């Protein structure tokens, strides 16, 4: 996700009128923890990850992408999504098992990502109607096969203008929700001007159907201080008014991202200010080599928040 991602890879169209944005309730302390998983192809399993029973826990499998690797370089498929997470390990039966043994767990899938076979992934469409129709159909098949609960939007490069992106993604989420295919949706922007233009356009038109904002705060520089992190967080409360903004950090080996300790300190400050709706981590694949130390710490912090969805 953002500059820190590394990916190892070996129905009917919605008839939606102009959608008026109705802001959701303002974010407050909550106990939502989210962990991306499956993009690095290192064999990490759901059962490897410690799950605190006092948090709401979302696994987000990374990724499904409307690209094909049948061509070189990989090419876009106009909304026909294919699986690019390590589905030989994170199988449909594994999803069912982790949810059955942990009633507080939901499983989602992220759309897009940064690269396929080290090539950039672009949001690229033929037309709004055809992209939405293909996306609804292909994602419905994947979500139902794996018994998933939601989707996450993580396109980071665009060959479409913000209004087109907003209409495609907004209609997709609206249709999947109205069809009962998904229960929730999130977006994963970061502090890049073009990325923000696209996601803020989506929020302005369809924010009422987006449940969480997985903002990639770790994409800011390594010199970021705790106070600056909190300021960046407050900026997103303005950029996505009424949204449930999640704090975040990466456990990937990097010297260019906000440090984990700075991020966790900022999370404590945000919680003391009543603004920590949740935390997400990129990614469980990396956390395994650290014994999931920081995943455990983040969940322990959130476990002090009120329970309930």
What characteristics describe this protein?
309 residues, alpha/beta, 8-stranded parallel beta barrel, two-stranded antiparallel sheet, 13 strands
What does this structure look like?
It is a single chain. With 309 residues, the protein is an alpha/beta fold. It has helices spanning 92-101, 128-146, 162-178, 193-206, 226-239, 260-272, 284-287, 293-302, and strands at 32-37, 56-65, 67-68, 75-76, 82-83, 105-113, 115-116, 119-120, 150-155, 184-187, 212-214, 245-250, 278-282. The strands form 3 sheets. It has an 8-stranded parallel beta barrel, surrounded by 5 helices. A two-stranded antiparallel ribbon has the order 3-4. Strands 7-8 form a two-stranded antiparallel ribbon. A hairpin with a 6-residue loop joins strand 3 and strand 4 (75-76). The longest helix has 19 residues, at 128-146. The protein is globular and about 45 Å long. The chain starts with 31 loop residues before the first strand and ends in a 7-residue tail after the last helix.
Largest sheet: 8 strands, parallel, barrel
Q: How many β-strands, per DSSP?
A: 13
Number of helices: 8
- Would you tell me the overall average pLDDT? 92
Whole-number radius of gyration?
A: 18 Å
Spatial arrangement of strands, main beta sheet: 1-2-6-9-10-11-12-13
Beta content comes to 15-25%
Q: Which class best fits the helix and strand makeup? A: alpha/beta
Approximate shape = globular
Q: What are the secondary-structure elements, in order, as H or E? A: EEEEEHEEEHEHEHEHEHEHH
Estimated helix fraction:
25-40%
Low-confidence stretches: 2-25
Distance between the termini: 26 Å
């Amino acid at each position: 996700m953002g500059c820190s991602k590394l990916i190892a890879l070996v129905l009917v169209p919605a008839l939606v009128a102009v959608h008026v944005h109705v802001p959701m309730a303002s974010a407050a302390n909550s106990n939502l923890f989210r962990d991306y998983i499956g993009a690095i192809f290192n064999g990490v399993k759901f059962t490897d990850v410690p799950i605190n029973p006092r948090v709401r826990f979302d696994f987000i499998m990374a990724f499904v992408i409307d690209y094909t690797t049948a061509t070189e370089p990989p090419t876009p498929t106009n909304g026909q999504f294919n699986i690019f997470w390590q589905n030989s390990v994170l199988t449909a039966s594994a999803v069912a098992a982790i949810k059955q043994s942990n009633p507080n767990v939901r499983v989602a899938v992220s759309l897009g990502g940064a690269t396929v076979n080290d090539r950039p992934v672009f949001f690229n469409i033929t037309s709004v109607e055809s992209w939405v129709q293909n996306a609804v159909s292909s994602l419905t098949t994947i979500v139902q096969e794996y018994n998933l609960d939601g989707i996450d939007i993580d396109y980071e490069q665009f060959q479409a203008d913000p209004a087109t992106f907003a209409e495609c993604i907004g209609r997709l989420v609206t249709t999947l929700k109205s069809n009962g295919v998904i229960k929730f949706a999130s977006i994963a922007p970061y502090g890049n001007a073009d990325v923000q233009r696209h996601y803020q356009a989506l929020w302005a038109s369809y924010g009422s159907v987006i449940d969480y904002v997985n903002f990639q705060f770790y994409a800011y520089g390594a010199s970021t201080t705790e106070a600056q992190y909190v300021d960046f967080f407050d900026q997103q409360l303005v950029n996505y008014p009424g949204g449930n903004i999640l704090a975040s950090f990466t456990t990937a080996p990097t010297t260019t991202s906000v440090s984990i300790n700075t991020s966790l300190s900022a999370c404590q400050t945000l919680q003391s200010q009543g603004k920590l709706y949740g935390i997400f981590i990129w990614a469980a694949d990396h956390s395994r080599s650290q014994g999931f130390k920081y995943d455990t710490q983040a969940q322990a912090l959130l476990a002090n928040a009120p329970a309930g969805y």
